[in-house]
Amino acid sequence: MNWVEAGQVLKAVKNQHKCGSCWAHNTVAAVENLYARYNEIYDPEAIPSLSEQQLVDCNTFPNLGCYGGKALYAFNYTKNNGLTGSRYYPYMNKGDVCKFNPNGDQSDHDGKKLTKTPTLFKIDNFKAYNHVTTRDLEKLSCAGVLAVPLRINRCIKHYIRGIIDDRDGLCGCSNIGGPNHAVALVGFGSVHAFSEESERGWTSAE
After folding, report:
1. Strand partners, 205
2. pTM for the complete prediction?
3. Of the four listed, 4, 17, 56, 120, which is most buried by Cβ atoms within 10 Å?
């Protein structure tokens, strides 16, 4: 399964830069894919880019903008408020006051009227899982792009492409608990090696 090949994921992978907003990026990637599937869009150029900056600025508790957060809270915010588009609320690589203004009737602290930021998509509900297995992830990823937390260690810090070969055991579970990054899981599949066995791997967009 590959949602990129299905044409239901944006072509360009967005860059969070130095802002620790991976939690916002993987949430938005999953919601963009849901938008494409809901509207039966199979052309990545026709999928609207939704706003990570809205989550960074407006979903501020318990999430902390550029200092980190969890997709769980971002999905809950999206359920309650919806998301506008990046063209209305562009990514700034830093946190700021919330400027989400879906009705066009709000003003800033100085009384200046804020630009209208129309709601493009709102989710009805979502599910969060703990302690999922590889088999669980395969089944879930068939339903859509997943927002997945993970632990970045020295082995995968500079990962670029392909399936990581962990024969030396350096890429396994970290002794330090808890995730420190988040990605969008956009598919999975098998790569046939030179032996009779095939290697299974995941496709992610950071």
Report:
1. 184
2. 0.86
3. 56
Query: In sequence order, what are the beta bridge partners of 182?
Result: 149
Q: What does the pLDDT look like over 28-74, one tens digit per residue?
A: 999 999 999 999 999 999 999 999 999 999 999 899 999 999 999 99
pLDDT tens sequence across 133-181: 888 888 899 999 999 988 887 777 777 777 776 666 666 665 666 788 8
**Could you give the angle at which helices 71-81 and 22-38 cross, rounded to 10 degrees?**
50
By the 10 Å C-beta count (0-12 exposed, 13-18 middle, 19+ buried), 69 is classed as: buried
CB contact set of 179 (below 8 Å; sequence gap of 6+): 149, 150, 151
CB atoms within 10 A of CB 108: 11
